[in-house]
Amino acid sequence: MTSDRRLRIIHQLAIHHEMEVEELSSSLHVSPSTIRRELSVMETDGLLVRTHGAAHLRVPIDYDFPYASRAAKQLDEKRAIALAAMQLVTPGMTLALVGGSTCTALARMLRPVDELTIVTSAINVALELQGQSTKHVIVTGGTLNRNSYELVGSQAISSLENIHCQMAFLGASGMSPEYGLSMSDEPEAAVGRALIASTERAVVLADHTKLGKRGLVRVCPLEQLSLFITDARAAPEQLMSLRRAGLEVIAAELATVGIVAPGRPGKGSRERLAEGQLEP
Question: Which of 180, 243, 244, 274 is 20 to 30 A distant from 221 in Cα terms?
């Protein structure tokens, strides 16, 4: 069973990147020896990397410069969005994930969540979750897109036709009421459409800089989406325009998003929204 404490450690490392044992001890209100024991187990499970008196989340792939540069933009916002998306996930679910930087941040957050089946069209997402015995990772196959870590093409699309997911998480180049969800790459947009067709709930994860923009390729209208998660820096009028179009929207504030242990009693996103922990 996943412990609340390990989820809280992942939460803290997601925010601060690296923390010392004493900092984690103070933040979680437990002894340093308890933190050291937890870190030791979590390192063995492939969740993090221990250094001299500290720890940071494991990054199992040496990302190339173009991707790393994109991932570094709006980093705090992407972590907040990923943490908010994690609240939707419970053990035993079947999920789909693409490989953009925000979805990759979510993949790292999902490491301590037990008994997940994850379908992905991205090699980097598969590697982020590799080696964890409590997860079943399915890779679509296909042709590697030279501009990203995504697998695209007819093989990727056909493999999704016979798969059913409870929830799919997608990134975006643009989100607008008129144009809907859009991406900058046509082959990846085609895989995105196949993922949406294979899932019960399609959830878009994108920071505030994507709002009101139109990417090169339209993926789908808003009617085909279930939820949009962005960050609290989004302009209220832009969020309201999406809501008026019928899309549920959550804007996450990094400093106040909490972790609820998956599968255990806790406040859902709507309850936290009412209390101001997630921005409306």
Answer: 274
